[in-house]
Design a protein that fits this description.
Elements (H helix, E strand, L loop, with lengths): L1 E5 L4 H12 L3 E6 L8 E3 L17 E4 L12 H24 L6 E4 L1 E2 L9 E2 L9 H13 L7 E7 L1 E3 L9 H6 L15 E3 H13 L4 E5 L7 H11 L10 H8 L1 H7 L4 E2 L2 H6 L8 H12 L1
Parallel strand pairs: 1-2, 1-4, 2-3, 4-5, 5-8, 6-8, 7-12, 8-11, 9-10
Helix pairs in contact: 1-5, 2-3, 6-10, 7-8
Length: 297
Amino acid sequence: MRIVISGASGLIGTALAESLRNKGHEVVRLVRRPAPAPDEWSWDPAAGVLDGEVLDGAGAVVNLSGAGIGDRRWSKARLRELAASRLKTTETLTAAMSRVQDPPPVFLSQSASGYYGSRTGVLREDAGPGSGVLSRLCVEWEAAAHAAPSGVRVVTPRTGVVLSPKGGALGPMLPLLRLGLGGPFGNGRQFWPWITLPDEVAAFEFLLGSGLEGPVNVCAPESADVNALVAALARAVHRPAFLRVPAPALRLVLGRLADELVLASQRMEPARLLDAGFEWQHPALSDAAAWLAAEIH
């Protein structure tokens, strides 16, 4: 099957493309530059430009594009960039699908746990959106994906924190933990939905082949608050993690990003994946810590 991926150079996209190729699929990566490689196709989502030929007859499209939410402090310009990098890419893909004779039957378009905002209680897919910047962005992002032509099965995975020694959310944390300088954020009692990179990739492949559509929570079945999560990561690198970062300091450095991302609590449950019979390699935090320890050393 030919699978077209946007955002294929990121953490998830790189791992997903490699896994799909290893399973015999043809992967075409959309790139924002001239595309000399045979597995690349040039596009300009900021201008809404994509030749629909690359989508015509494809088996699936996976949309992973989007500037990093936590990469830098949120200024007005940065918030516009975060929105445009998601909405323009998604709109360009759905518009191109509408122009081709044989649109892909599956459109898997990334969303995020930020859809739910920060709240108490268990969050399944039928929970409504929260309030705040990330919630509004995710609502618009998912709506843009559902503009795909009739007959296209649209899946919007709401992904949590992806654990990997290669980067992602752990990128800035692991060097500090290795030095014994890491620790929980705020009081550490906020829940972060987490998943290892191999399970993230496996879940995406499962969603491509399943009949599921609409929102799907993509996280491990075991909940963990930040205290437990950081402790598990510290064990993986054989270091203590007791230097707690107080909430006021986080707000001073990160501004609004602190409350919406770092201090936000989302006890997300992967209800639809569980019901569909998906099997995790690392369903518990202890499994994830053991895997990380093996990968790091």
